[in-house]
Amino acid sequence: MTARARIALAVVGLVAAGVALRASGALDGLGVEGLRAQVLGWGWLGPLAYGALFAVGALLHLPGYLFVTAAALAYGPVGGALLAYAAAWLYVMASGGAARHLAASMRASPAVEARMGKVRASWAWRLLHRKPVVAVAALRCALPTNLALTSALVAADISPRAFILGSTLGLLPQVLITAALVSAATG
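^ thats the sequence. predicted structure below, dont judge the formating
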């Protein structure tokens, strides 16, 4: 099957699922208040389900602000921001740990070492290693939960402390700004 055929099949499947959900009435009352009531009705499972969906969405390269928006709508601007920040932070730390584990086994490869020689000579490498916390925070502001960024930061062999601190600081602006915008838009 060609790539175009797979994409077309996926689109048709998503449209069919949407039509089926709409026809079944599963989407009735799924406005802001309906979403809030449904999620709050899940009790303590709501935040766990949200965290799992956040991780799956990030792995599928869905933008983090979609999940921040959903959390702010369901749990309010403060509760949603706290939940979204916690989910984003846990996702970034878990994916960073997994990438660090995988990178350790790849570093022994002569092909990887040959390619890294060129990267180490670049201006980006020097900046990242001169002020790693600032560089990681700035990159996280631009690409908060991006898996490729996480892998690149791990491959750059910055310290775990710089990765954690920079990610912790860099995730905050996106979550706060998105939650504030959602709060202003929904009144």
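The longest helix spans residues 64-106.
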